[in-house]
C-alpha cells in the first residue's frame, strides 16, 4: 500500500493540474470500458484492463506498473497504415531522412523556403524531438543526411558545397568537408566501417572522404556525364554505386577508383536514388522516369523491372532489412512497397501525403517506414503487409462477396460489392498487382479461376460476366443474361464457363473468347444462385431460389434430370465431391444436404448453422466439407458422417459470404460483409487439439499461433483456455479484428489486435503471482 501511495504522490509532483485532469479522465474511460469483466472477476482490473490500457490511452500507461505474467496486446489501427505524423512547420520541407543504426532515432533535413536554410533535426521513434540533441543549422538547403555506423554522428550535404559531420551529443559540427566538390552535393553515405564518406554532386563526380582528417581520401571518381544524385556503399565496403542525371548507374571499385562495370543503362530519365540489397547481390534504383528497377551487381544486368506503378518521379528507394521488399517514394504523393523477389506490388500504396514524397527509409527492425515530404510532414507507416490502405486497396470498405483460390494454390482472388477485384499472394498476403475496377459500384457476386490460372471469370449484379486475364487485368464483357449473374464456374479443362442468373437460366460460354455456346438451359422456376461442374466436366449442377438442385447432362443431349427436392428455402451453394459421386448443397434453410449423383436421392442432412448457409466446398481429398453462413462462422464437417470435425471458425464480424479451400495445403480463405478476406490455417483433425507452443515455436507466442480449438473467444468477449480459465476480456471494438487461434491472416482495412501469450500464466488462482514493477 505504501508503494501505491508513494507512486500517486510521485505522479502528483511530476504533473501539472491539466495533466492530472487528463490522466483522471483517461483512467475513468478505461475503468468504464472494463466494468463488465472487473465486476465479474476483480483480478481482471490487472489481467484485462492493464493489457489494453496502452492501446486505449497514450498517457495512462506512463503511470501504470508493469506486470510480467499477463497477456500483451498488440494493436494496429485500421487507418491507412499511418502510425505517426510529425508536423515540421509551416513552409518547411523534409528533404532527406535516415534511421540511426539502433532504430531509436530519425535524422531529418528540414528546409525552410522562407529563410533558405536547413536544420538537421533528430526525432525519437515516438515522434518527439530528441531532447538531448540540439537541432543543427545549415546555411543552405540540406539535400542528404546519413547516420554514422556507430550512431554517434550525422553527416549532411548541402547546396553550399559542404559536408558537415555533427556530434549528436553536442549538436556541433565537428568537421566540414569542403575541399573538393564545386557544386551542390546531392548525396552522402557512410562506409560500413565508418571510416569514409561517399558523396555525389552536381559537378558530375563522386568523392570519398576520410572521416578522421576531413580530406579527400582518393581522387574523385569521374565518368558520369551529368549530376550525381545518389550514392550508396556495398555492405562489404568495397564498392560504391552512383545514380546520375545522365540516366545511368555506375559501380565503382573504391580501392582502384575505377568503374567496376560499364555504365548500367535502362532508365530513360534521371536516376534519383540507389541502394544495395543487404546481401550485396543486387542494387535497386528509382528514377524520374517513374519506375523502379533491380540490377545484378556482378553483371549490371536488369533482374526485375521496370516496376511501374508510380505516376510521378521516383524520388527515393530503400530495401527492407531482410531484403525481401523494396519501398519507393514519388512525386505522385504516394509510397509503394514492392516484392524484391518478383517485382510485383507487395502492398497497397501508402497514401496521405499531400505533396511530393522526397525521402523514404525502413527502420532497422523492418517494422516501420519513415517518409519525408514537401507537405511539411514526416510520417511513420506500419511496414507490415497484412493491413491495407488506399481506396482501391485490400483495405477498401467494400463487402467481399466472392473468393477463389488459383489451381496451384499460389493466389487468392476476391470480388467486392463496389465492383473491384483483387488477386493476393496466398503465402504473403500481399497484392499481386493493384486492385482492378471491374465495374464501378456494380457488385461482383461470384468469381472462378480457370484450370491453368490464367483467367478469372466474374458474375456481376448488372447481368454481365467479365472474363479477365489474371496477370494483366485485361477483360472482356460477356452479355446475354437478362438479370443479375449470381454464379460462374470454369469447366475442369477451362474450355467452358457456366453461369447462373436471376433470369432463371443457366448459360454456357467459351472459356477463352467469352462467346455463348448453345441455348440457355432452362428448367428452374426461380433465380439460379449456384452452379458447379462435375470433376469430369460432363455434368453441371445448379441450385436455385425454387428450393431445388438440378443436374444437367452436357455430353450432347443437354438433358436436365428431375429436380432434387428437400430443401425448404433457396439453395445458395452447390459442390461436387472430388470423386464425382456426391453433391452437397447449402440453403437458406440453414442445412447442408448430401445427394447421390447416380440416384439423385438425398443421402444425408447436416445441421448446425444458425442462419443461411452461404457457401460450401469440398476439401481437395474429399474427406471434409467446409461451409460458411450468415451466422458469421465457418464450419468443417466429415463428408461421410456429417459430423463436425473441429470447433467453428469464428472471428468474422459479419456474415461470411464465400469460402475456398487451398488446393495444396488445406488452408481456407473466407470473405465477409465485414470487408475482410481471411486465411485460416489447416484445421486440426479432431475436436480437442493440443499444443505446447514453447516446444514448437521460437520467439513470442501469440494467440493465433495455437491450433484452432485450443482457446475460445465467446460472444461475451472472454478468452478462455481449455480449462475454462478467464485469460483476457476482449473489448467489443477489438473482437472483429482479433487474431484468434487458427487464423493466419486478415486482409482488410479494419483495425487488428494480436494477443501475445508468451508469459501469460497469471490466470485462475495464479493471478496472485502478479507483482507490480514501477
From TrEMBL:
Database matches in SUPFAM superfamilies: WD40 repeat-like (SSF50978)
Top-rank lineage group of the source organism:
Eukaryota
Annotated WD repeat ranges? 135-176, 178-214, 221-262, 264-305, 307-348, 350-382, 393-425, 444-478, 478-519, 521-562, 564-605, 606-647, 649-681
Matching entries from PANTHER family are given as:
TRANSCRIPTION INITIATION FACTOR TFIID, TRANSCRIPTION INITIATION FACTOR TFIID SUBUNIT 5
* Keyword terms: Repeat, WD repeat
Q: Where is the signal peptide?
A: none
Organism (species)? Ephemerocybe angulata
**What name appears for this protein in its UniProt entry?**
WD40 repeat-like protein
**Pfam families found in the cross-reference section:** WD40
Amino acid at each position: 500500500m505504501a508503494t501505491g501511495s508513494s507512486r500517486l504522490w510521485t505522479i502528483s509532483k511530476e504533473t501539472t493540474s491539466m495533466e492530472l485532469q487528463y490522466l483522471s479522465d483517461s483512467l475513468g474511460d478505461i475503468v468504464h470500458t472494463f466494468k463488465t469483466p472487473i465486476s465479474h472477476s476483480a483480478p481482471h482490473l490487472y489481467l484485462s484492463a492493464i493489457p489494453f490500457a496502452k492501446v486505449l490511452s497514450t498517457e495512462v500507461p506512463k503511470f501504470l506498473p508493469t506486470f510480467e505474467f499477463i497477456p500483451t496486446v498488440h494493436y494496429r489501427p485500421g487507418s491507412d497504415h499511418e502510425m505517426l505524423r510529425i508536423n515540421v512547420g509551416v513552409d518547411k520541407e523534409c528533404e532527406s531522412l535516415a534511421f540511426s543504426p539502433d532504430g531509436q532515432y530519425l535524422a531529418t533535413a528540414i528546409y525552410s523556403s522562407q529563410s533558405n536554410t536547413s536544420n538537421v533535426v533528430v526525432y525519437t521513434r515516438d515522434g518527439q524531438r530528441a531532447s538531448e540533441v540540439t537541432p543543427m543549422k545549415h546555411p543552405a538547403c540540406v539535400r542528404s543526411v546519413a547516420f554514422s555506423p556507430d550512431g554517434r554522428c550525422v553527416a549532411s550535404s548541402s547546396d553550399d558545397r559542404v559536408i558537415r559531420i555533427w556530434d549528436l551529443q553536442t549538436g556541433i559540427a565537428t568537421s566540414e568537408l569542403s575541399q573538393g566538390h564545386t557544386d551542390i552535393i546531392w548525396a552522402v553515405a557512410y562506409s560500413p566501417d565508418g571510416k569514409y564518406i561517399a558523396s555525389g554532386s552536381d559537378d558530375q563526380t563522386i568523392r570519398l572522404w576520410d572521416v578522421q582528417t576531413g580530406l579527400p581520401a582518393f581522387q574523385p571518381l569521374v565518368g558520369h556525364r551529368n549530376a550525381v544524385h545518389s550514392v550508396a556503399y556495398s555492405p562489404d565496403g568495397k564498392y560504391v554505386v552512383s545514380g546520375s542525371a545522365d540516366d545511368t548507374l555506375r559501380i565503382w571499385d573504391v580501392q582502384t577508383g575505377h568503374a567496376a562495370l560499364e555504365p548500367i543503362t535502362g532508365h530513360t530519365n534521371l536516376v534519383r536514388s540507389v541502394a544495395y540489397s543487404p546481401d550485396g547481390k543486387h542494387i535497386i534504383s528509382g528514377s524520374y522516369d517513374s519506375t523502379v528497377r533491380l540490377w545484378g551487381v556482378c553483371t549490371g544486368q536488369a533482374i526485375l523491372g521496370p516496376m511501374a506503378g508510380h505516376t510521378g518521379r521516383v524520388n527515393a528507394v530503400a530495401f527492407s532489412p531482410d531484403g525481401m521488399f523494396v519501398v519507393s517514394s514519388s512525386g505522385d504523393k504516394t509510397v509503394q512497397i514492392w516484392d524484391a523477389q518478383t517485382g510485383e506490388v507487395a502492398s497497397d500504396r501508402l497514401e496521405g501525403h499531400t505533396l511530393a514524397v522526397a525521402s523514404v527509409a525502413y527502420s532497422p527492425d523492418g517494422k516501420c517506414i519513415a517518409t519525408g515530404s514537401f507537405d511539411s510532414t514526416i510520417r511513420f507507416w506500419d511496414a507490415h503487409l497484412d493491413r491495407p490502405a488506399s481506396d482501391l486497396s485490400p483495405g477498401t470498405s467494400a463487402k467481399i462477396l466472392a473468393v477463389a483460390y488459383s489451381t496451384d494454390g499460389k493466389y487468392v482472388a476476391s470480388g467486392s460489392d463496389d465492383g473491384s477485384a483483387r488477386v493476393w499472394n496466398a503465402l504473403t498476403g500481399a497484392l499481386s498487382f493493384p486492385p482492378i475496377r471491374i465495374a464501378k459500384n456494380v457488385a461482383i457476386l461470384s468469381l472462378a479461376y480457370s484450370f491453368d490460372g490464367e483467367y478469372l471469370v466474374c458474375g456481376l449484379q448488372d447481368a454481365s460476366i467479365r472474363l479477365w486475364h489474371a496477370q494483366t487485368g485485361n477483360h472482356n464483357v460477356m452479355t446475354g443474361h437478362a438479370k443479375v449473374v449470381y454464379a460462374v464456374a470454369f469447366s475442369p479443362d477451362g474450355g467452358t464457363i457456366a453461369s447462373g442468373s436471376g433470369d432463371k437460366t443457366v448459360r454456357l460460354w467459351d472459356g477463352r473468347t467469352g462467346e455463348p455456346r448453345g441455348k440457355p438451359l432452362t428448367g428452374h422456376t426461380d433465380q439460379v444462385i449456384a452452379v458447379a461442374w462435375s470433376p469430369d466436366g460432363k455434368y453441371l449442377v445448379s441450385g436455385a431460389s425454387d428450393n431445388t438442385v438440378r443436374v444437367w447432362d452436357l455430353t450432347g443431349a443437354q438433358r436436365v434430370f428431375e429436380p432434387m427436392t428437400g430443401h425448404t428455402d433457396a439453395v445458395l451453394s452447390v459442390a461436387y465431391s472430388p470423386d464425382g459421386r456426391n453433391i452437397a448443397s447449402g440453403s437458406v434453410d440453414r442445412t447442408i444436404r448430401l445427394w447421390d449423383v447416380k440416384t439423385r436421392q438425398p443421402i444425408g442432412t447436416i445441421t448446425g448453422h444458425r442462419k443461411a448457409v452461404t457457401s460450401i466446398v469440398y476439401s481437395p481429398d474429399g474427406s471434409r466439407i467446409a461451409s460458411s453462413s450468415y451466422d458469421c462462422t465457418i464450419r468443417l464437417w466429415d463428408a461421410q458422417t456429417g459430423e463436425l470435425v473441429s470447433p467453428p471458425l469464428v472471428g468474422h464480424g459479419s456474415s461470411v459470404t464465400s469460402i475456398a479451400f487451398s488446393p495444396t495445403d488445406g488452408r481456407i480463405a473466407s470473405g465477409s460483409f465485414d470487408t475482410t478476406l481471411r486465411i485460416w490455417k489447416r484445421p486440426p483433425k479432431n475436436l480437442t487439439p493440443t499444443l505446447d507452443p514453447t516446444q514448437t515455436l521460437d520467439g513470442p507466442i501469440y494467440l493465433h499461433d495455437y491450433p484452432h480449438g485450443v482457446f475460445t473467444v465467446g460472444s461475451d468477449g472472454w478468452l478462455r483456455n481449455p480449462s475454462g480459465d478467464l485469460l483476457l476480456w476482449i473489448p467489443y471494438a477489438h473482437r472483429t479484428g482479433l487474431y484468434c487461434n487458427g487464423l493466419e491472416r486478415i486482409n482488410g482495412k479494419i483495425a487488428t489486435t494480436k494477443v501475445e501469450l508468451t508469459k501469460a500464466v497469471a490466470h485462475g488462482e495464479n493471478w496472485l503471482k502478479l507483482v507490480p514493477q514501477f
